[in-house]
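Students often ask what a holo structure prediction actually looks like on paper. The answer is less mysterious than it sounds. You provide the chain, you provide the ligand, and the output is a string of discrete structure tokens encoding the 3D arrangement of the protein together with zinc ion.
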Amino acid sequence: MRCSIKELLRGDGVLPFSCELDPAELEFPSILRYESPLTAKGTIRSSAGLLTLTGETRVSLRCICDRCGREYDREAVEKLDTVLVTEHQDEEDPDVFLVQDDCVDLDEIITTAFVLGLDSKTLCRPDCKGVCPRCGHNLNDGPCACRPEADSPFAVLGQLFNAEE
Ligand SMILES: [Zn+2]
Ligand SMILES: [Zn+2]
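The corresponding structure tokens follow.
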């Protein structure tokens, strides 16, 4: 959605916004599907010649854990905190967006915040224990019947040393 900020370009002021978009085309290996639209709300503020946009984005996801492969639900909430400029700047700053024809491209800002926020959050839980490399048992459900020592290369070394004694 494009949002006209003509009034804000004339002087100080605050403009609330809320919008939603279909995230279906944003494909990531760890996201099985989107359970809700990608929504955003916040305010665009003009103060002393500086234009800022703050707020948050929210979407419900069905994800797959990177470590154990289990499916899980997650609500992804990302902060919006960007600066809007009316002229292109030389540097590529992901927190700076260009105002074109007195309009802000909310879709671009929301999508960027969501994508940047996705990194390193694809575990079913922060301390996911993964699966046993021998039997495939999901170790979040408790230990499996395999003897854990047998998987460690150090355990093998230990056995060698013991044999030499
Ligand atoms: Zn997991
Ligand atoms: Zn096992």
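The helical segments are 6-10, 106-117, 153-164.
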